[in-house]
Amino acid sequence: MRARKLLMAGLVLGLAAAGIFTAPTVSSASDDTVHIRFSTWHPPASREVKTVWEPMLEEMKKRSNGRITYTLYAGGALGKGPEHFDIVKNGLSDMGYFTASWTPGRFPKSDVLSLATSVDSKATAATIGKEMYEKELKDEFEGVKVMELNGCIQAFIWTRQPVKSLEDLKSLKIRTPGGHQTNYIKALGAEPVFMPLGDVYLALETGTIDGLVTCSPLVLAFKLHEVVKYGVKATFGCVTEGVVANQKFWDKVPDDLKAIIEDVASNPYEATGGLDHKVYGEMISEIESKGVTLYELPAEESARWSERFQDETRKWVKDLEAEGKGAKEAVVMYNQIVGKEGITCTAFPAEWHE
Q1: CA neighbours within 13 Å on the CB side: how many for 265?
Q2: Distance CA 96, CA 114 (A)
Q3: Who contacts 212 (Cβ-Cβ below 8 Å, separation ≥6)?
Q4: What one-character DSSP code corresponds to residue 107?
Q5: Within 10 A of 300 (CB to CB), how many other CB atoms are there?
Q6: Quick check: 44 pLDDT over 90?
Q7: Of 19, 41, 147, 307, which has the maximum CB count within 10 A?
Q8: Selecting from 3.40.50.720, 1.10.540.10, 3.40.190.170, 3.30.70.100, what CATH number does the domain 22-108+121-152+240-274 have?
Q9: What is the pLDDT of residue 277?
């Protein structure tokens, strides 16, 4: 038994030395330096990692003249996607990207950011999310330092078979990302199915599900263009997500380094140029080049979908208002904020316009 333990210990040390096995390092925050353990569920080769998270962390390192260093744990290395808020809050990582919509009911009011709205730049989404967080959503994120909050980039519905109307969606099983999209899928006559993104490819390939609602970066990151051949350019909105820091870690960071981290992480897409308006267009073109046919709903059919989304907003507000949460106020504020960016919230009830 002793020999076996020594053998296993030697194996782990050997793998670590070779760079094959890496255990989470211990974070540090001294008077001079900070080491950030950053976690995300995004795949290591995804645009999010390569054009946002790695450049963001490198920018912090550069601005601090090397006083900020980091270890990046991508691809859900520290836990599954829905666990990432707690991964940071509980200190397994120091900072990380989480998706609030993947834990239904935990951040109820923050679902306002996932209303059906067409946003084609993560930088714009973060600008909208920051104002909403400061004015309406702070009380839902106790125990962490919120760096940025956003409603992601516009999601579409992607399917194995052509969809051109509500009738085509009837009874289809559609993977939902959570948030308002779950009820949107129901309202359109389809059946929402929640599962981790990592399981979606096989579920589509085997016909367990017929499609999904997600944004274009994730279609590419998870190679879903290989198993879905049709997309509908309908305004679905997307999920509520963002970057948070562990509060104990944050409290120990020197003030001058806090300023650098906040300046970069408060809108990492703006700081890095990743996932901006231009990139969004490039991703749509890339998906089409891989054999996916995109269909734009005619105005009349689009109006049918929008009315159902608006009805879901009314129901959501009614339910939260019954719990004493000022949901209508949040929706009205959100509509005003996106309006300043020249964006229309499709899910905003027509009769609520002043």
Answers
A1: 25
A2: 20
A3: 157, 158, 174, 175, 176, 177, 200, 204, 224, 228
A4: S
A5: 7
A6: yes
A7: 41
A8: 3.40.190.170
A9: 87
Mean pLDDT of 241-266: 98
pLDDT tens per residue, range 313-348? 999 999 999 999 999 999 999 999 999 999 999 999
pTM metric for this prediction: 0.89
Could you tell me the pLDDT band of residue 28, with boundaries at 50, 70 and 90?
Answer: low
119, amino acid identity = V
- Tell me the CA distances in angstroms from 111 to 20, 103, 114, 116, 335, one per residue in order: 39, 11, 5, 11, 13
Place of tokens 């211990």: 26
Indicate the DSSP class of residue 280.
H
Q: Across the chain, what does the average pLDDT equal? A: 92
Give the whole-angstrom CA distance, residue 64 versus residue 53. Answer: 17
